[in-house]
Amino acid sequence: MDKIIFNEAQRIWTEIAQHKTPGELKLEVELYKKLLNIFQVGDYYYMVFNPPEMIIEFTSNSITPVLGYQPHEFQLDKLMEIIHPDDLPYFINFEATVTNFWRQLPPDKVKKYKSRYDYRVRKKDGSYIRILQQIITIQSDEDGAVLRTFVVHTDISHLKKDNRMILSFIGLDGEPSYIDVDPVQRLTPYKEILTPREKQILSLLAQNLTSKEIAAKLDIRYATVSTHRKNILGKTNTSSVLELVQLALEKGWL
Hints:
Keywords: DNA-binding, Transcription, Transcription regulation. This is Helix-turn-helix transcriptional regulator. Residues 115-168 form the PAC domain. There is one protein chain. A hairpin with a 4-residue loop joins strand 1 and strand 2. 38% of the residues lie in helices and 19% in strands. The chain is an alpha+beta fold and 254 residues long. It starts with a helix and ends with a helix. The model has no long low-confidence stretch (mean pLDDT 81). It contains nine helices and six strands; from the N terminus they run ααββαααββββαααα.
């Protein structure tokens, strides 16, 4: 791995934390709440990252079936090492953009956004898969310095075949979202086209639930689900659930 690139990534992540040292914190409740905001559309693993100390404090056992590594093998240097060489410059650029975005947020907004973008990583067997990386802050101080983040890597190789990497900031709790961000341009809020109910149904469709199963789960009529489904396809100009899910990943609706 290029030492210069690794040092640059380390500088960016340390800058997020503004060189603050995290205190002791029980993370279980925060992790649970944050996990609800990250929808999975494939095999995934998750981590708790500590920017001030530049360490991955925890990696889930599910990393093994996804990448082939054991949790204890996976630290920041390993992640940087396995990123596809063609994607690494974009990764560094996106991380710098993410850092600037979080630094500009008021302290009370830091936990109300998740960043997301995709890139290719090398599995232990040497093959590459495309992962969707989603990050949310689970601990910050009174000044808004990011002390711990919750990171989810989801295998989306089956959903995305092109190599265009897309960076987005998804607003939570009613905050505006910024989709397909160009790192060199000013951020413009994204205009939502789906209602909260339509997004809820979309997330269930992405889990391969049928309209009948969705109706039972949400305790609404089958005809209502069918109407929502038709409206979602119409609004998004898609003709199938697969095409819809692929677009939803790109637009940050999932």
